[in-house]
Amino acid sequence: MTLKAHILLGAPGSGKGTQAKRLVDTFALTHLSTGDILRDAVSKGTEIGLKAKAIMAEGKLVDDDTVNGLVFARLLDETRDVLFDGYPRTLQQAKALEDFLSSKGLELGMVVNVDVPQDVLEARVVGRRVCSNNACGAIYHLASKPPKQSGICDLCGSPLKHRSDDTAEAFRSRMGEFNSTFQPLLGFYRTRPTFRSVDGHRAPELVFDSLRQIFGARA
Ligand code: AMP
User: Fold this and answer.
1) Which numbered atom of ligand 1 lies nearest the CA of 39?
2) Residue 174 CA, closest ligand 1 atom number
3) Main-chain phi, psi angles of 187, to 5 degrees
């Protein structure tokens, strides 16, 4: 069977990371979050990590060639369908992915946009706390999904952290970047037969129900 690459699109704070984790568990997909891959490179101090660290802390985008290279290396090793989360982020990445997929005989799967109004996004991001244990990666929110014990992950007991790019200042920079690159990206995918949009400004369970229907019915 041809390996498919599915894509979850959405702004920072749209909830796509949380939804991606649930989707990969439900549909036995491999979760490929370029943010996670880059954070892992930063924490391991690899050459790419050292280059990416300051760029990420400012909420800017890591350059396309670096990100494409990381993604393609992972795709070559894959045996299951993958779900991209946070990739592609630019039109150049989308086009490079399309070329890579066709050169390897792989297919584009579902492309789903998690749509959330911009004024809702900042509050979500600034209150977000994530588990510092990369292998766990659980996501909390101080107001809407607090951990049982302040600052501690419910699932694995590791300390929670506030990502350095989840401050209000870095968020505004990320939104600036996002707005300039996202519309062309959406334009690139919007006319594809597998493109869908879901209303992400609802309870996470309801958003997941919509996504489950879409992925459950995929070709
Ligand atoms: P995320 O966890 O998806 O919010 O990504 C965190 C940060 O990693 C972003 O603000 C960027 O600095 C970097 N990053 C993640 N994915 C990409 C990508 N596809 N292209 C460029 N930079 C990325």
Assistant:
1) 8
2) 10
3) -60, -35
Q: For 62-115, write each residue's pLDDT tens digit.
A: 999 999 999 999 999 899 999 999 999 999 999 999 999 999 999 999 999 999
Best residue for ligand 1 mutational test, from 62, 114, 164 (most atoms within 8 Å of Cβ):
62
Whether the CB of 12 sits within 6 Å of ligand 1: yes
pTM: 0.85
Active site residues: 16, 89, 128, 163, 174
Distance CA 91, CA 88 (A): 7
List the domains of the chain with CATH numbers: 4-116+179-216 (3.40.50.300)
User: Distance, CA 165 to ligand 1 centroid (Å)?
Assistant: 10
Residue having the nearest C-alpha atom to atom 5 of ligand 1? 35
| Ligand 1 pocket check for 62: Cβ under 6 Å | yes
- Distance, in Å, from the CA atom of 59 to the CA atom of 129, rounded to the nearest integer, reads 17
89 ligand 1 Cβ < 6 A: yes
Quick check: 211 and 19 in contact, CB under 8 A? yes
The amino acid at 92: Q
The set of residues, in sequence order, having a beta carbon less than 8 Å from that of 219 and lying 6+ positions away, is 194
pLDDT at 200 over 60: yes
Q: Which residues pair with 84 in a beta bridge?
A: 7, 32
Contact 35 CB / ligand 1 (< 6 Å) = yes
Q: How far apart are the first and last CA of the chain?
A: 12
Residue entry with tokens 């749209």: 14
